[in-house]
Amino acid sequence: MKIVAMAAIALCCAAAGGNAATYRWTDDQGVLNFTDSLETVPAKYRHRVLKGPDITTRDPRISEEVKQQEERARQEQAAQPPVATTPDYMPAQPPEAAPAKVESDELPPGRTRSQKIRDNMERRKAEEEKAQQSGSQQ
User: What is the C-alpha separation between 54 and 81, in angstroms, rounded?
Assistant: First the structure.
């Protein structure tokens, strides 16, 4: 008796695998739907269901085709040149060097602002004296 029950279960399992099919239907919005189980089709669309061959990966032919497509995709990706990243902005001409400043507002290292003011006052005083001397000589 156990042998008969085991054989019946094995036969049902084999029949379920061999009876695989794909079901398709169109819903009210016009969307084409696919499934491999008739139970997942909503009841109001079951009268519209069309049964087709198994197109899932359970079918060895489909499984093999998927593997071939994946291998072709890997080969195509490996054959493509690497992508070089570039900056978003490239100036048309290289930037020109800024003209050298004659007198800088920046303080050299180690000088305080008060030292710079004192130096400027002394420089102006020397320029004025020089201007007076050259004016008196003429």
Answer: 38
